[in-house]
Amino acid sequence: MTISALVCVSLLLMGIGGVGMVIRRNILIMMMCLELMLTAANIMIVTAGAVHGVLGTQVLVFFVMMVAAAEVAVGLALLVLVYRLRNTISTKELTWLKG
Amino acid sequence: MAQGIISVGAIAMVLAPLLGAVGIRCFRDRLSVNQAGWLSVVSMGLSAVLAVMLAVNWNGQVGIMTGFEWATLLNMPVGLGIQVDGLSLLMSLMVTIIATLIAVYSIGYMAHDDQAPSFFAWVSFFVFWMLVLVMSDSVLGLFFGWEGVGLCSFLLIGFWNGVASNQRAAIQAFVVNRLGDLGIWVILLLPLMAFQPLGWMVLSGQVATMSPLIQALLGMGVLLAVCGKSAQGPLYVWLPNAMAGPTPVSALIHAATMVTAGVYLLSRAHFLVGPAVQPWVMGVGLITSLLGAILALGQSDIKRVLAFSTMSQLGLMVMACGIGAYHAALFHMVTHAGFKALLFLGAGSVIHGLHGEQNITKMGGLRNHMPITFWTMSLAVLAIMGVPPLSGFFSKDAIIVAAMGHSHWLLGATLFVSLLTSVYMIRLWWLVFMAPATSGVPPHESPRIMTIPLLLLGVVSVVAGGLNVPVGQSLGLMSAWLQPVVPWLETPHTSWFAMIALSLGMAGLGGAIGWGLATRFPLLFRQWFEAQFGIPLFLNAMTAQLTLVVGWALNRVGDRVLIQGGIRTTSWALNHLSKRILMTQTGRLGTYLLALLVLVLGILGSVLLP
Amino acid sequence: MDTVVFLCLTLMMTSSAWAVILARNPIYSVLNMVVCFFAVGGLYLLLGAPFLAMVHLIVYAGAIMVLFLFVILMMNLNDVPPSGWSKWTPLLSLGLGGTMTAVVAWVGTQGQHVLIQRPVSTQTLGLELFQHYAGPFELSAILFLGAVVGVVVLTRLGSKGGQP
Predict the structure, then answer these.
(1) Any idea where the domains of chain A sit in the sequence?
(2) Chain A: residue nearest C9 by CA?
(3) Using CA atoms in the order B152, B156, B161, B163, what is the torsion angle rounded to 10 degrees?
(4) What is the pLDDT at residue C80?
């Protein structure tokens, strides 16, 4: 379990999340990939804390989790709203911002 | 002490007409024509009296009072002040005395015109500006006076502004004068740019230090200004049309004072006209005097004959300045002021007596009906023809002698102009006074208030020659006055007998031709003369029409193609570009996220990799 | 020993992450996500953060994913579009995950090992949190308040025709 291995794991997880966000058209799945990316960041932070023995990193992870939770709540509320208005959650059809 | 009194007197002399003008203008509605006129006469008369007193008490020294430093132009301080010397005193004497006489005359001439109080206000205002012009000690003061007399001439030419042609004439006078003012700008700004002061006394010493190019430009500037104000060269076109104003205006402005401002400028700024430019001055003056004399031969309007005559005589003066004979030119200017003002006032008397008739072919036989006018005008005609011992003989003789000293062909040209002068003057005189009466209206002599100035001017025409008669080897009185500021030209000595004979011969020959023209061919080539051989049309095409064509071309090419085309192309390009950029706004979340991802990776890469 | 566990966890993590993306049925995505989070929790334990591991599981797997499930189920969003991929998804995700694990293993042969002296106890973490980070802690409470209010407002907007 070397530092580079942990960093690699984090990066790979981030990459998977990123790919997922770009590929999938279902907003729900996109939000889950967002959580994946956040988790990957968390792993990195914890790794850094473990390497240097700093306690503040774990607190930071704590806060990140809290923010992620709040964000998911609001995001899902918005999703519900959008579904009620347009009856779809596919980004293929949600193109109001098209210029 | 004496210097202080002279300063105060000079300032008072300059300001008196201004006070008169302001007073008349302010109380315009409450003054009758008579009251306004006499107020104007009093203000200008006071000025004349002060001028005489100044002249008598002048101690021969050039005195400058720089009144105050006014501003800093182009990093040079410029001021306004009064310069008292022979030339400025001579000019102010001439201007004030003649203006006073003309104002007295105008009281009678403008008696039944309701707008007359304004007239007197403008006349006084004009005299004020003319005095500023001649008494100032620097180019700047002259410039102010120059513009002021231009403005007043515009106001006075277009005085009867209900008639559109009067307005056009006034505008033409002003605009053509403005063209000449470019020359004044040159002599105003170039010395400042060369870090020289503008005062006449100082500038005369400094001119030699400037480069030949600047000296040539200064000389050309003076020539251009003179052409504008004195109706020389191609800028003459305003003078015949300026006859649309009341006759006293023509007498004052266009015969005696304003047009002589050009000659004054040439004399005052003689050091600016170097050897490179002097031949041009001479040429322009000569051509103008020939052209004026020729055009005067066939005119039917009494005032136009006199206008072209003025143009021709001014041409002689300018030519004399061009060959360096400044004293001769100034002498002729003074005598010409006298008899030309008399001629114009007499013409006004004739017009007044005939109730507005100005066509000389419809006049005649006025000899018996208007005796005073007849005799005084005849004196003036003889004077302008150069018949001794009237004033015109002496002054014209001075110019002829100067021409003789220059070259034979110039002498011949000058004599030819004198001949033509006699021709058209006798033609005029015959058709107006001597020919059988053609108008059915019985004319009446003018009232005394108009004839007294005529008489006084007649006296002037007779005796003014004595001003500059050289006594033996010494200079005449006027030349002695002018000597310190205006250079004297040595001219060949001739015998009095020869000159008298020459003048009488020219006058006689010309008179005979003129009588022949008047009796046999009074309407010879009338349309050609009235169109002035198409010269004004040609000049108009060169300037105004050319400007219109240039404007039309600029509109077609510049405005429509370049500017509008440019704007349209720019807007089209922007529109097109924006449509292209708009393609990135797909509205699809996936696209945006991808872009974001790429951006973040790019930033990270650019930061981490190096 | 550490390394083996680490690699197992990595395999679990990456393959379930791939499965999240590649699954057609959203319910399957959610379930795979939960599995991933379990693996992450295990990783935290390995890294000496037991409290974080528990919190991670509780918050993410226990709350957030449940929230997702609720939304899916209440909106009837689990209509699976017919496609031929769903058969291959498990294998594909395992394959990709395995590849990634191999990569990680290879990377893990070089470099310095992480040595955990002892895991951070909850007491220590709590002291740290409430002594030095009390400010942000309180602010996060406000954050949650905002989130709750926002959610309530948004849901009422949709249902009563725009009357907040």
Answers:
(1) 3-86
(2) A9
(3) -130
(4) 63
The residue range of the domain holding C83 is 2-118
Whether residue A27 lies within 8 A of chain B, CB to CB, comes out as yes
Put simply, the answer to whether A22 touches B588 (Cβ < 8 Å) is no
Q: Which two tokens stand for residue B540?
A: 């108009």
* Site from A42, A61, A62 to mutate, C interface, most C CB atoms within 10 angstroms: A62
Nearest CA in chain A to B583: A99
**Per-residue model confidence as pLDDT tens digits over A48-90:** 988 888 888 999 999 999 999 999 999 999 998 888 888 888 8
Identify the residue whose tokens are 């003018």.
B446
Residue tagged 């007498």 (tokens): B251
How far, in Å, are B387, B412, B541 from residue B392 at the CA level?
Answer: 7, 19, 38
> Is there a contact between A32 and C37 if contact means CB atoms under 8 Å apart?
no
pLDDT of A99 > 80? The answer is: no
Angle, CA B52 vertex, CA B50 and CA B57 arms, to 5°: 95
In chain A, which residue's Cα lies nearest the Cα of C80?
A26
The pLDDT tens digits for B185-218 are: 988 888 888 777 777 777 777 777 778 888 888 8
* H helices present in B354-476, as ranges: 366-369, 371-385, 391-406, 408-429, 448-463
Residue C55 belongs to some domain of the structure: yes
CATH number at residue C112: 1.20.120.1200
Mutation test of the interface with chain A: which of C31, C40, C128, choosing the one with the most A Cβ atoms within 10 A? C40
- What would the two tokens of residue A13 be? 């997880």
* B416: its two tokens: 């030819």
Contact B586 A95 (CB under 8 A): yes
- Determine, yes or no, domain membership for C149: no
Does A22 sit within 8 Å of B597, measured CB to CB? yes
Integer Cα distance of B468 and B482 in angstroms: 11
* Residues B198, B202, B206: CA angle, nearest 5 degrees: 90
Contact: B594, A22; criterion CB under 8 Å: yes
Q: Where are the beta strands (DSSP E) in C32-149?
A: none
Q: From the CA of B555, how many Å to the nearest CA of chain A?
A: 40
Q: CA B169, CA B352: separation in Å to the nearest integer?
A: 22
What is the 8-class DSSP label of residue B237? G
The number of residues in chain C equals 164
Domain A3-86 = CATH 3.40.50.970: no
> Cβ(C137)–Cβ(A60) under 8 Å?
no
Q: What pLDDT score does B474 carry?
A: 59
Contact B180, B227 (CB under 8 A): yes
Per-residue pLDDT for A27 more than 80? yes
Q: Min CA distance, B588 vs chain A (Å)? A: 5
pLDDT band for position B508 (cuts 50, 70, 90): confident
Query: Could A20 and C157 be called an inter-chain contact, meaning their C-beta atoms sit closer than 8 Å?
Result: no
Note whether residue C90 is domain-resident.
yes
- Say if the Cβ atoms of A9 and C120 lie within 8 Å: no
Name the more confident of B446 and B265: B265
Angle between the B139-157 and B116-135 helix axes, to the nearest 10 degrees?
160
Q: Positive or negative, the Cα torsion across B544, B549, B552, B558?
A: negative
Q: CB contact, 8 Å: A88 with chain B? A: no
pLDDT in tens, C117-136: 678 888 889 998 999 999 99
Å from A89 to nearest chain B CA? 11
Q: Chain C: list its partners (3+ Cβ pairs within 8 Å).
A: A
